[in-house]
Amino acid sequence: MSIEIVVKLNEQDLEHFRSAMRKIYSAKSDMDDKTIINHAQETINEIRQSDAPEYIQERIGSLEALIGMLTNSHWKIPPQDRPRILETLAYFTEVNDLIPDELPGLGYLDDAFMIDIACQDFKDELEAYRDFCVYRVTQAQQNGRDISKTEGTEWLEHRRKQINLKKYLSTKKLQF
C-alpha cells in the first residue's frame, strides 16, 4: 500500500529551504563547479543502485536534467541561474543536511523538497532544456549526423525568447 502526501509550502517555508541550500553551498565554497557536479553524479549513481525510497528515485531524472543544463556545451545557461542550480546539487550531496541521509525512510525527504523547489524555480527552463535535447536528437537522426555536431542554435534562441516573454508577462498584470 502506498500513500500520497501533499505538502504546501508558503514563501517563508520556501525561503527557509533556499537558505539551507545557500548555507551548504557556501560551506562547500572550496569546491569548484565541476567537483560539485561530479559529486552529484556519483551520489545519483549510488542512489540508483541502492534501495533508496521511491520518492527520491523518481526525482533523480529531474536532478540529471539540472546537471545537463549546467554541463551541456550547446545549452548556455544564464549566468545568474548557475549558482542556484549548484546550490541544489551541493545540498543533495550533503549527507548531514536538515534530515541526515542515513535516517532510514526519511533521510532523503528534505533532498526531495529541495529538488522539487529547484524544479519549480526552473520550470520553464527545464521544459525548454528537455525539448532542446529532444530537438537535437531528432535533428541528428533526420540528418544522419552525430548529436554532438547538432547545435540547435536558432531553435534555442527562439525558445529563450519565448521563456523571457513568458517571464515578462507573468510579472505584468493584464488590464482590460
Could you explain the architecture of this structure?
With 176 residues, the protein is mainly alpha-helical. It folds into 2 domains: 11-121, no CATH class; 122-176, no CATH class. 65% of the residues lie in helices and 0% in strands. The chain has 8 helices and no strands. Helix 2 runs antiparallel to helix 4. The longest helix has 21 residues, at 123-143. It is globular.
The number of helical runs is: 8
What would you call the structural class? mainly alpha
For the sheet with most strands, the description reads:
none
Low-confidence segments, ≥5 residues, pLDDT <50?
none
Question: How much beta, percentage-wise?
Answer: under 5%
Number of domains: 2
What's the total number of strands?
Answer: 0
Provide the residue-averaged pLDDT: 90
The gyration radius over C-alpha positions equals 18 Å
What attributes does this structure have?
single chain; 176 residues; mainly alpha; 8 helices
Short description:
This protein is mostly helical. 65% of the residues lie in helices and 0% in strands. It folds into 2 domains: 111 residues, no CATH class; 55 residues, no CATH class.
List the helices and strands and how they pair.
Layout: H1 11-27, H2 33-48, H3 54-57, H4 60-71, H5 82-93, H6 109-121, H7 123-143, H8 153-171
Helix pairs in contact: 1-5, 2-4, 2-5, 5-6, 7-8
